[in-house]
Amino acid sequence: MIERTPILDFVTQAILVLSLIALLMPLWVVFVAASHDFHTVNQVPMPLWPGNHLLENLSVAWKQGNFDRVMINSLIVALGVTAGKIGIAALSAFSIVYFSYRLRMLMFWLIFITLMLPLEVRIVPTYAVAANALGPFQAMLNLLGLSIQLPEWNLLNSYSGLILPLIATATGTFLYRQFFLTVPDELTEAAKMDGAGPMRFFIEVLLPLSKTNMAALATIMFVWSWNQYLWPLLIVTDHANYATATMQLQKVVPGPLFGAPPIWNIAMAANLIVLAPPVLVTILLQRWFVRGLISTEK
Q: Which phi and psi angles does 241 have, rounded to 5°?
């Protein structure tokens, strides 16, 4: 039983307000810095009230960072990774929950353990596979003594290289598995009696029921994939065609070149540009995101 007292309510509300201020303060500083001119931003202390140069700074940052191209690249990568993660997570969880075969729980725990292996840990082998995606299969054929030569499939400097190595997700598989376990067995039996096969049951019954879970996972994965920096920086050398928005920040983030002072207002404006899409997606899907994580109605 949760005890409700005026003192406890005040303390919890105060903690929430302080947490909100701590969360929004850095964003406010970025917004304020992006709205001032160069001299005002470099004042000590910097004003904490917005100026009237926001649109000017955004325009300069957009041109200087060539964001018209890289924003499209980031959108393609983020949508591709999000769709791939949702599809693979749903199919893998469907297989684990609704099919009975040996070692299926071992497979689930092997997938779950990969949560402890972030991209930074496996970056070298992932890059090696991306350099030749068919290389592991060629090694298996050589090990078996088969004289079959597979062609090379180089994923570097391509959208497939930016997307495919990132689409596996243990988090999504776990979320879908937990939801599928709550689906009544009677629904499965009714679908079988109606003559629905496994894929029809998956597409016409399970996927519509898991819309809130899908929206929650899509929100998380879109923000995660949009903010990816290390992987695109590693595999993309053709910056003119495949650079992403987070990579492009290095062109406008302050750095003294030839004695020039850092241009913080333009850098903060560029940060606002890169922040806008994930913030917009989070706001639009906020209700679905919360329902997908905490709703008990199935």
A: -115, -25
Q: How far apart are CA 39 and CA 238, in angstroms?
A: 35
This prediction's pTM: 0.84
pLDDT, tens only, 247-297:
888 777 755 444 556 788 888 888 999 999 999 988 888 777 777 666 544
Task: Give the ranges where the chain is alpha helix by DSSP (H).
Answer: 6-34, 38-41, 54-65, 67-98, 104-113, 123-131, 135-143, 159-163, 170-180, 185-193, 198-201, 207-209, 211-226, 230-235, 239-242, 245-248, 264-284, 286-294
Buried b (16+ CB within 10 A) or exposed e, 88-115: bbbebbbbbbeeeeeeeeeebeebeeee
What is the DSSP secondary structure assignment for residue 119, as one 8-state letter? T
How many structural domains is the chain composed of? 1
> What amino acid occupies position 101?
Y
Neighbouring residues of 39: CB distance < 8 A, sequence distance ≥ 6: none
Is position 246 within any domain? yes
Q: For residue 15, give the 3-state DSSP assignment.
A: helix
Does residue 12 lie in a domain region?
A: no
The residue segments making up the domain with residue 186 are 67-251
What CATH number did the domain enclosing 96 receive?
1.10.3720.10
The 10s digit of each residue's pLDDT in 176-190 is 888 888 888 888 888
- Dihedral pair phi/psi, residue 54, rounded to 5°: -60, -50
